[in-house]
From TrEMBL:
Taxonomic path: Eukaryota, Metazoa, Ecdysozoa, Nematoda, Chromadorea
Species of origin: Acrobeloides nanus
A biological-process GO annotation: glycerophospholipid catabolic process
GO molecular-function terms, A-Z: glycerophosphocholine phosphodiesterase activity; starch binding
Cell inner membrane found in the keyword field: no
Gene3D superfamilies for the chain: Immunoglobulins, Phosphatidylinositol (PI) phosphodiesterase
UniProt keyword terms in alphabetical order: Hydrolase
Domain GP-PDE: start-end pairs: 333-643
Protein name per the record: Glycerophosphocholine phosphodiesterase
Keyword Cell membrane part of the UniProt annotation: no
Superkingdom in the source lineage: Eukaryota
Pfam families from the UniProt entry: C2_GDE1, CBM_20, GDPD
Length: 643
C-alpha cells in the first residue's frame, strides 16, 4: 500500500509587527518544520499580495501542529554562519493544528487559508523571543533620574529627546564619528572585516513613565525625556559584544521662527559614545561625556545589563509549548502556600518552613501552588531558604570530618561549640549547611525562636535547606511551584541585603538549569523583587511565566533604590513595558490604593497579592471577590486552603 502524501500550505499576514529586516518562520511537529526546534524551522517568503507563504509535502501524518514566529539574522563575523534571532513568537498554550486526512482536497491542504500572526482561537498571544544562541546577548540600557547634566545653564531645557543607536566598531560607517583622525582610505577600519549581516539589532525603547510603556521602535529624534522624572529602558541584541558600542544622541525641540508655520525638526544638542571599555561588566552604572563640535558640554549617566544565553546544561528549548503568556481563568483565585505551610520562625506554624514536609503539607491541605525562595550555596547548588543570612550555633566537629570540609577558619571565629555566628548562605557549601544547627536571626518584632520543636530536622523531609532538585523529586507533583529567585538589592537607607553576591547571569543560570531539567509537567511560575532578575529569567527561557514582586509605597518594608520597586503603579508599567506575565502586589499597599490592580488588568496582566494582611479573612475575601485577583499567597493559615 502506497502511503498517501499531502501538501500543506502556510499563509500568514503580520499586522503591525514586522520590520523590513525580519522574516516569518513556521515550526512544528514534523521534521520538515524542524520538530519544534526554531533553528530548523521553515522560512516563509512574501508574495505579491503581502502574504508570507510556503508549503511542505508530508507522508502519513494524522495531525500536524505548528506555530509561527518572527526572526532575523545577525552575524558575529564573516567566518561564521548567521545567527537566527527570534523577535516574537505566537505564545498560545496550544499551537495551531491541521488534520491533513480530513482537511485536504486532492491531497492539498490549507491552500486558501490565511492566518493572522498572533491571533488564534479569537485570542491574541504574542511574546518576545528569548536568547537562542550561545554568542547572543540582550543588552538593556537604563536612563533615569537626573541622567543629563550640563556644565552651562544655557544647555538646560525643560525636556530633551534621547536616542540610542548601537555601533559595531569594526564598521567604518558606524565608527567614523568616533575617530576623527581616521585615514580617508579607511585602512584602519578595514583591519577587522565587518560581517555581511549586522552584528546588532536596532534599539527599541520602553518609556516606563509614559502612558504606553511597551517596547517599540525609536523615532528619528528619540523620545521626550524629562530630567528627574522619566524612566527609559533601551534594548538591543548583539552577537559580537566585544565590538559593541552605542552612540547617544540628545535633541531639544526647536522653536519655529516668526514667519514659520510648519513644525521644525528637533536640533541635535549633544552626542555621547559608550564604548566596550565603558561597559566592562555585565551589570553596572556608568557615565560618558556629552560633546558638541568635539568639546565636552556635559555628561549622561545610565545603567546597563548584559543578559547572556543560558550557559548551564538544560534540555533543548523548543516551541511546542509555552506558558509565558498563559494563565488559566478560574472561578476562584489560586491559593498559594507561603514557604509551604507558612512562616515558622517569627510566627506560629505547625511545620518548619521551607522544608519538603512543609511544602507537601500545603499541597495536602489543598494549596494550588507553594511559594519558596531559592538561593545558591557556595558550591552553587540551588537550595530553598528564605533569608540571605543565618544565625548558627557551631556544632561539634565529627572526628570523621576534616575541618576544612566544615567551616573555613576565616568564616567563623574560634569559640565554644555553642557560640553563634551570622553567616551568609552564599558563603556556605551545601554540606556545611546540612551540618549546622540553624536558627533564624531575630526579626524586628522581637519574637524568640524555639529550636526544641525542630529536633527531628535531620529527617530528609524535615531538615532545612532542601535543594531545588529534591523539591522537584519529593514534593507532590500535583502542586505548582511559585519560585522566588532571591537576589540581594540595595536599600534606600544604604544597607545592602548581601554584598559581593554571585554574578547575575551565573546565578540565574544555575537555577534555570535545575528547573528546566527537573520540572517535567509541574506548573511553574517565577517571581523576584529584583526587576532585572525578572527580565533575565524571561530572556533566558521560553517556557515559564514571570511575576514581578512589588513592595509598594508607604509600607513597613524598607524601600529599594531601584525606582521600579517604589510604587505598585511603577511595577505595573515595568511589567507591561517588558512583557512579563503579571505583578505580585503587596496587600498593605493595595488596601490604601487598589487602582494599580485596575490598571494592571487594563494592560492584560495577571495579578497576585502577598502580605500579612491576607491572614485576615476579610482582606482575603476583598482581594478575591472585590478586586478579582488571580492568586493569593498566604503566610500561614493553611486550613483556609480549599479542599
Amino acid at each position: 500500500m502506497v502511503a498517501q502524501q499531502f501538501t500543506v500550505h502556510f499563509s500568514v499576514t503580520v499586522p503591525n509587527y514586522l520590520h523590513d529586516y525580519e522574516y516569518v518562520f513556521v515550526t512544528g511537529s514534523d521534521s520538515q518544520l524542524g520538530l519544534w526546534d526554531p533553528k530548523l524551522a521553515l522560512r516563509l517568503e512574501k508574495n505579491e499580495e503581502g502574504y508570507w507563504v510556503n508549503s511542505v509535502t508530508l507522508t502519513s501524518v494524522n495531525t500536524l501542529n505548528f506555530r509561527y514566529f518572527l526572526g532575523y539574522y545577525l552575524e558575529s563575523d564573516a567566518t561564521k554562519p548567521p545567527s537566527l534571532i527570534i523577535s516574537k513568537f505566537e505564545a498560545h498554550l496550544r499551537p495551531r493544528f491541521v488534520i491533513p486526512t480530513v482537511e485536504s482536497r486532492d491531497g492539498v491542504c490549507r491552500l486558501r487559508v490565511n492566518n493572522i500572526f498572533g491571533t488564534y482561537g479569537e485570542r491574541v498571544r504574542v511574546a518576545d523571543g528569548w536568547i537562542l544562541n550561545d554568542e547572543q546577548n540582550s543588552i538593556i540600557l537604563t536612563v533615569t533620574g537626573e541622567a543629563l547634566k550640563f556644565y552651562k545653564q544655557r544647555n538646560d531645557h525643560p525636556a530633551y529627546r534621547i536616542k540610542i543607536v548601537p555601533l559595531d566598531l569594526r564598521n567604518r560607517n558606524d565608527s567614523f564619528m568616533i575617530d576623527d583622525n581616521a585615514d580617508d582610505d579607511g585602512a584602519a577600519a578595514d583591519e577587522l572585516d565587518p560581517p555581511i549581516f549586522p552584528s546588532y539589532s536596532p534599539t527599541e525603547i520602553a518609556p516606563l513613565t509614559h502612558a504606553n510603556p511597551r517596547y517599540r521602535d525609536q523615532t528619528d529624534f528619540g523620545e521626550t525625556f524629562h530630567n528627574g522624572k522619566d524612566y527609559f529602558l533601551f534594548r538591543t541584541q548583539s552577537v559580537a559584544v566585544e565590538y559593541l558600542g552605542f552612540r547617544i544622541e540628545v535633541y531639544v525641540d526647536s522653536k519655529p521662527g516668526n514667519n514659520q508655520s510648519k513644525l521644525v525638526e528637533p536640533r541635535l544638542l549633544a552626542t555621547a559614545f559608550a564604548l566596550p571599555s565603558t561597559l566592562q561588566d555585565t551589570y553596572g552604572k556608568t557615565s560618558v561625556p556629552l560633546t558638541k563640535r568635539g568639546l565636552p558640554i556635559g555628561k549622561i549617566n545610565f545603567g546597563y545589563l548584559f543578559v547572556r544565553s543560558l550557559g548551564k546544561p538544560h534540555p533543548l528549548q523548543k516551541m511546542d509549548i509555552s506558558y509565558v503568556k498563559h494563565w488559566k481563568k478560574r472561578s476562584r483565585a489560586f491559593e498559594v502556600g507561603h514557604r509551604g505551610m507558612g512562616n515558622s520562625y517569627t510566627k506560629f506554624a505547625a511545620t518548619r518552613e521551607n522544608t519538603i514536609h512543609s511544602l507537601n503539607g500545603a499541597a495536602k491541605n489543598g494549596a494550588d501552588f507553594v511559594e519558596f525562595d531559592v538561593h545558591l550555596t557556595k558550591d552553587k547548588i540551588p537550595i530553598i531558604f528564605h533569608d540571605f543570612h543565618v544565625l548558627v550555633n557551631v556544632a561539634k566537629r565529627s572526628p570523621t570530618i576534616n575541618g576544612n570540609q566544615f567551616l573555613d577558619s576565616n568564616e567563623i571565629s574560634k569559640g565554644s561549640s555553642d557560640s553563634s555566628h551570622v553567616l551568609a548562605v552564599k558563603d556556605l557549601k551545601q554540606q556545611q549547611l546540612r551540618l549546622l544547627h540553624k536558627m533564624m536571626i531575630k526579626e524586628s518584632n522581637g519574637l524568640n525562636v524555639d529550636n526544641d520543636r525542630y529536633d527531628d530536622y535531620l529527617h530528609e523531609y524535615m531538615r532545612p535547606f532542601p535543594t531545588l532538585e529534591e523539591a522537584f523529586r519529593l514534593v507532590s507533583p500535583d502542586v505548582g511551584f511559585n519560585i522566588e529567585v532571591k537576589y540581594p538589592m540595595l536599600q534606600l537607607d544604604g544597607e545592602h541585603e548581601c554584598e559581593n553576591y554571585f554574578e547575575r547571569n551565573e546565578f540565574v543560570d544555575f537555577i534555570l538549569s535545575d528547573v528546566l531539567t527537573h520540572a517535567e509537567d509541574r506548573r511553574i511560575v517565577f517571581s523576584s523583587f529584583d526587576p532585572d532578575i525578572c527580565t533575565m529569567i524571561s530572556l533566558k527561557q521560553n517556557k515559564y511565566p514571570v511575576l514581578f514582586l512589588c513592595v509598594g509605597a508607604n509600607t513597613k518594608h524598607v524601600p529599594f533604590v531601584d525606582e521600579r520597586t517604589w510604587t505598585s503603579l511603577k511595577a505595573v508599567h515595568f511589567v507591561a513595558g517588558t512583557g512579563l506575565l503579571g505583578v505580585n502586589f503587596h496587600s498593605e499597599d493595595l488596601l490604601v490604593d487598589p487602582s494599580p490592580v485596575i490598571e494592571a488588568k487594563q494592560f492584560g496582566l495577571v495579578t497576585f497579592v502577598w502580605g500579612d494582611e491576607l491572614c485576615d479573612m476579610k482582606h482575603a475575601d476583598y482581594f478575591k471577590k472585590g478586586l478579582l485577583v488571580e492568586g493569593l499567597i498566604y503566610d500561614s493559615n493553611v486550613d483556609r486552603f480549599p479542599t
